[in-house]
Amino acid sequence: MNTLSPYADLMYRSRQVALLGSCSSVLGWDQQTYMPKGGAAFRGEQLALLATLAHKQATDARVGELLGQVEAEPRPADSVEASNVRELRHAYDRAVKIPPRLVEELARVTAQANEAWIEARAKSDFSRFAPFLEQIVALKREEAAFVGWQEHPYDALLDEYEPGAKSSQIRSLFAELSAGLVPIIRQIRGATKTPDATILQRDFPTDRQHLFAESAAAAIGFDFHTGRLDTTTHPFCSGFGPGDCRITTRYNPKAFNEAFFGVLHEAGHGLYEQNLPANRYGEPTAQACSLGIHESQSRLWENLVGRSRPFWDHFFPRLQQTFPSVRDVSADAFHFTINEVRPSFIRVEADEATYNLHIILRFEIELALMSGDLLVADLPAAWNEKFRAMFDLTPPSDREGCLQDIHWSFGGIGYFPTYTLGNLFAAQFMHAARNQLPDVDAAMRQGDFRGLREWLIANIHHHGRHYRAGALCERVTGTPLRVQPFLDQLKAKFFPLYEVS
Amino acid sequence: MNTLSPYADLMYRSRQVALLGSCSSVLGWDQQTYMPKGGAAFRGEQLALLATLAHKQATDARVGELLGQVEAEPRPADSVEASNVRELRHAYDRAVKIPPRLVEELARVTAQANEAWIEARAKSDFSRFAPFLEQIVALKREEAAFVGWQEHPYDALLDEYEPGAKSSQIRSLFAELSAGLVPIIRQIRGATKTPDATILQRDFPTDRQHLFAESAAAAIGFDFHTGRLDTTTHPFCSGFGPGDCRITTRYNPKAFNEAFFGVLHEAGHGLYEQNLPANRYGEPTAQACSLGIHESQSRLWENLVGRSRPFWDHFFPRLQQTFPSVRDVSADAFHFTINEVRPSFIRVEADEATYNLHIILRFEIELALMSGDLLVADLPAAWNEKFRAMFDLTPPSDREGCLQDIHWSFGGIGYFPTYTLGNLFAAQFMHAARNQLPDVDAAMRQGDFRGLREWLIANIHHHGRHYRAGALCERVTGTPLRVQPFLDQLKAKFFPLYEVS
């Protein structure tokens, strides 16, 4: 060790912490996929230990000393090395503020909370989850207090998922988005032409859905030599590290949408993970830029590619071959129905337009939980009231309401807004890609996604966290993140389908 | 921490090391079951880190100091606490002799070697595995040198699996066993009455085999709330910790034997793991006594229960219901064919009698590899020569020869002899159980295994490693480990079946 330069020593230590985190990822994936029910408590102990060890290594006083040394060394501002030092400093300053006791408690409570959430959701019984969520909110408020914040305690949590982002910025982006989105949704909902939604509720045998979705994921470039697809209650993507990335989905034999677009979504995340700079694994800049950028990749493949007409020019004949139940359906009717805009209860099943209202609702609830304005006990009522105001619908049960998402059970407060940031980034990136790749639609019609994939790899994936999300966006698209490309894209797709203007 | 007594502090540390080991177990299970091929190298890095951390914690100088303190405290010699101190001292003295560099190298090399072995076995190409095995043998010889030994370097490795055992004792046990076994096998092979082996090669659809084996495992008491059954190349049982134990098997639709008795075998291991003292998890005495004792539990359920006539009085009608292909077979014919004695190439498919010859062969080869008398390059030839001498058969390929077992790929030299020790322990335990539970056969005929299971739990499982294997055997059966009960059991079962005497 004493032969390493301070910089190399830092990178070595960073790699050890990343490796420990990756062990937790394997245990977390197993917990969602194959772990027997009785293993939950013990899994909590394992995860708590790994989290504690990782935190201990990341906050080792020697890391602070080494950081001080390397910051004094001259480095080109735009170099990967300088970015590594910047990100390590950011992570270190955050981590040392959080006491190990809190890290361990959060790991243990969230492991139990996840099991409680699964049961609470299955039985639509919020009271089974509430005591765990209360502990989680209390611990996250404690965490925010330790980390510190200027405008809102929420900022301290948001930073973990979207480094450098502030809730005030997101508030104003979301306000602009809402102002543009609500009239678009109103126009679409007022259209006389509507898709035949029953098409997607015909017979789609689960095993065939699995094979069809797997083939589409492979076609867009998800590598099954270094990845796999499993079934879980809540779909996710977990990139363990170079050579191993797992995606999951859930099947409903009477709903084609759910698994198929879910798999394209997770495969989009997977493509990002599979193309991060593997040779620098463990360096801070070799990880994903932010969750917003991560989500831009999943959303781009799910919605901007997977729900496009060119995509189905290639896949529709294959779909009809696989599922006899849709052999009498036209490609146009199918394309229209997978793009139905309809306010609904479940976020992950929502369409491209109303999806963002789900996020705005969660963002507002999380802000209130963190400020203390909303108590966990009042959450179901607050959720349903907001839902009525935004969607003009009342969730029939908490299962279709505040219990639908896994995030709070793992302590992921601050995570939701990154989904809508992802939608915005995706539209802006796709706009830029189309300008630079004029034949992208023609290639897609042939089932050829290489051009788009390689553009994304070169412009986004390979940079990892070398640039922060805002800087990356400007670099790739020429401007900071904007709402307009997303709104334009919605209108360009939905207005012709619904014959409004 | 400073409020803990030295003894409590030691137990806390022991628990942390056990938890780290259990994380490795999850990663190891995943590697065998679901990991994509491309993940092997990275998995090696993860496992190496966990092994290094566990070794670092186990060899922490503070553990040595605490051991010194607690050894000076008075404790009843037969107390669990005294046994915990004894076992921790044993493990500590061994661990501190092995340099961390060696631990890390072994973890990394074996992860790669495992992938190489899978491919080498599939292609029956020893050359793909040889370079890894050479590294492993060199590292294990190094390990033996660091640990130290008096009679044979093999003893240093054996001790890890069968604490306190010596190769000289095993040599003499095996010599006595061989002397008794060879004439028995000769008599059986000379019989004119033989079973119809084709019964087991009829149609046994894989999905039904899975359900049938799972139901039998549940019937003997394997708890699926805290366990699961998956498919792997090489079947195994991995008890992660309280509440989570995984067993695996492999299916052949034209061979009933393989998966069914494999599952009973692994479920026998699983029962042991599921009934270790969970409230003391992480204490040295809360782990399995030795691999020989572990194997006695799997062998007892696989052979002494699962291949017995009372067992099939209950299960045979269910077998015929599940598999139409055996509806014309009599219970007697079926019981005879699952007890066929026939020298064969594959250890895990071998019958109760010839099985032990496979072990004696491996034991002799391992002794020679460790002493340096045999080079890895000469292994296939040595294997085949010994096989001819003992079985009068020549393996048609290395796949059916020296490549058949996973053990060497994970560095498990010293492991094989514990299988035959397990057979001997099993016969001696079952003899004692029958004396104490006169209605055990009548209960089995009703599909009721509770009496036997509870006897094993109370007499063996619950003790964990409180007693060493030899002492446990004497305590449970009244005598040290002997060969005779095993030979008696063989004769009692096989001579009537084959009509020899």
UniProtKB/TrEMBL annotation, chains A, B:
Catalytic activity reads: Release of a C-terminal amino acid with broad specificity, except for -Pro
According to its UniProt record, which residues of this chain constitute the active site? E266
Q: Which UniProt keywords apply?
A: Carboxypeptidase, Hydrolase, Metal-binding, Metalloprotease, Protease, Zinc
- List, alphabetically, the InterPro entries matched: Peptidase_M32_Taq
| Cofactor binding note | Binds 1 zinc ion per subunit.
Give any single GO term for biological process: proteolysis
MF terms from GO for this chain are: metallocarboxypeptidase activity; zinc ion binding
A Pfam family in this protein? Peptidase_M32
What is its EC class? hydrolase
Q: Where does Zn(2+) bind?
A: H265, H269, E295
TM annotation in the entry: none
Provide the cofactor list for this protein. Answer: Zn(2+)
Report the EC number(s), separated by commas if there are several: 3.4.17.19
The task this protein performs is described as: Broad specificity carboxypetidase that releases amino acids sequentially from the C-terminus, including neutral, aromatic, polar and basic residues.
Sequence similarity: Belongs to the peptidase M32 family.
Q: What is this protein called?
A: Metal-dependent carboxypeptidase
- In the record, what lineage is assigned to the organism producing the protein? Bacteria, Pseudomonadati, Planctomycetota, Planctomycetia, Gemmatales
